[in-house]
TrEMBL record:
Pfam families, alphabetized: M20_dimer (PF07687), Peptidase_M20 (PF01546)
PANTHER family: ACETYLORNITHINE DEACETYLASE, N-ACETYL-L-CITRULLINE DEACETYLASE
Cofactors, names only: Zn(2+)
Residue span, Peptidase M20 dimerisation domain: 180-302
Any one Gene Ontology molecular-function term assigned to this protein's record: acetylornithine deacetylase activity
Protein name as catalogued: Peptidase M20
Keywords recorded for this protein, A-Z: Hydrolase, Metal-binding, Zinc
InterPro entries: ArgE/DapE_CS, Bact_exopeptidase_dim_dom, Peptidase_M20, Peptidase_M20/DapE_YgeY, Peptidase_M20_dimer, Peptidase_M20A
Length: 438
């Protein structure tokens, strides 16, 4: 395999990739509303001569190239978050902007750039005769990730019956190779009280005050250390081998966190004592933590135990319909996952990068100093479809994608043209490198 030829081929598709990404940016497509974007991606696959193109009942676009034995997948989600406060944007997020080095617009880093590079990476495989009887390449353009990461892949695996040898997540990695992420779950804490007239609050039982006590304990759980004298031992304890058999990977991923993200109340009026209060907790989980352990630690907080049966701790469910109208309910639990450094997939991606670009991250003039200061092999801070691919289903998953994690969900989102080219080249070369060694 000639790596210089692969680089040259990727560079040759630069303008095609840029045009494709510009087209995608101009089509709004939040979760469950991605239909028009999917049509545009399907048209690009058709133009490039993919061997088989399917759209499953959930609306995921599946593009195949080749007919070999091993199925190797490249995943990117098509949906985006909203634009938030428009005054924070310096340009129209659905019109975007372009310079010699950048493309701006909602979805450029998170994460339509990855889809563009994956589709063209697979095209390069075909152009250069890299497809053999050893592997088939699959590009999955997936739905509803921003609403419920991993839901799409749970459907692809369980309902479509597709189980690749491994999956490359094309989420943004700032020029790095990412081998894992913390998991997350969405916890609901409900507190009951008794209402009464606000002029005599002693006659009631104020649910908001009860919740205030509980939230103090939640904050302590996140902030406290792990000393024996601490009444509420903090989440940092999971980095200690004394408390966690998976402490090495936990230190790599970072400690878990918990924070209140939403609060709701019920009350007969503004001049009455609140008879109900509910909070949502965003819980990020490191290696060694499970949904059961996370629920149990909330139930064991002193304030929760103090209020007994008046408190219910549970996990949220997700049941929103996709743009096709299909509903596929699932728990709001997104497991931690991490692929070992010595795994064949990790080694193959590192070798591919080394042959194409060396052992340091690459970047633009704007990003290169920050990128080179970070290790090539790293992890995400945020969550990806890997929570289902590897977290729930044990399929090896690794990340390499154009753009920057810090651009995700941010105003003035942008990506870099050189990233699109480099990622397409890496994707094109990776399956051959992997199949030579596995």
């Amino acid at each position: 395999m000639d790596f210089n030829e692969i680089n040259k081929a990727a560079e040759g598709y630069r303008e095609d990739m840029i045009k494709f990404l510009r087209d995608l940016v101009k089509i709004p497509g939040e979760s469950a509303e991605e239909g028009a974007k999917m049509d545009r991606a399907k048209a690009e696959m058709t133009k490039l001569g993919f061997d088989k193109i399917e759209v499953d009942p959930q609306g995921n676009l599946l593009g195949y190239m080749g007919t070999g034995k091993k199925l190797i997948a490249f995943d990117g989600h098509m949906d985006t978050v909203g634009i938030g406060e428009m005054s924070n944007w310096e340009f129209d997020p659905y019109d975007g902007y372009e310079t010699d080095t950048e493309i701006g617009g909602r979805g450029t880093s998170d994460q339509e750039g990855g889809i563009v590079s994956a589709i063209y990476g697979v095209k390069i495989m075909k152009d250069l005769g890299l497809l053999t009887e050893k592997y088939t390449a699959l590009v999955t353009v997936t739905v509803q990730e921003e609403d419920c990461d991993g839901l799409c892949w749970q459907y692809i695996i369980k309902e479509d019956g597709i189980r690749p040898e491994f999956v490359v997540s094309t989420e943004p990695t700032d020029g790095g190779i990412y081998r894992g992420q913390r998991g997350r779950m969405e916890i609901k804490v409900e507190v009951k009280g008794v209402s009464c007239h606000g002029s005599a609050p002693e006659r009631g039982d104020n649910a908001i005050y009860k919740m205030a006590d509980i939230l103090q304990d939640v904050r302590a759980l996140n902030n406290n250390g792990d000393t024996e004298s601490t009444v509420i031992r903090g989440l940092v304890r999971m980095l200690d081998e004394k408390y966690n058999p998976e402490w090495k990977e936990a230190r790599f991923l970072g400690k878990g966190t918990v924070t209140a993200s939403q609060i709701f109340h019920s009350s007969p009026s503004r001049c009455a004592v609140a008879d109900g209060c509910t909070v949502s907790l965003d819980r990020r989980m490191t290696a060694g933590e499970t949904w059961e352990s996370c629920l149990e630690e909330i139930r064991n907080l002193p304030a929760v135990k103090k209020y007994g049966d008046d408190v219910v701790v549970s996990m949220y469910d997700y049941d929103r319909s996709s743009y096709t109208g299909l509903t596929y309910p699932i728990e709001c639990y997104f497991p931690t996952w991490v692929i070992p450094e010595e795994h064949g997939v990790t080694k193959a991606l590192m070798e591919t990068h080394r042959n194409l670009y060396g052992e340091e991250r690459k970047g633009s003039k704007e990003t290169i100093d920050m990128r080179k200061a970070r290790p090539l092999l790293d992890k995400w801070t945020f969550s990806t479809n890997g929570v289902s691919i590897m977290g729930r289903n044990g399929i090896p998953c690794i990340g390499f994608g154009p753009g920057a994690e810090a651009q995700a969900h941010a105003p003035n989102e942008k990506t870099w043209k050189d990233d699109l080219v480099r990622c397409a080249a890496v994707y094109a070369a990776l399956p051959t490198v992997y199949c030579e060694n596995n």
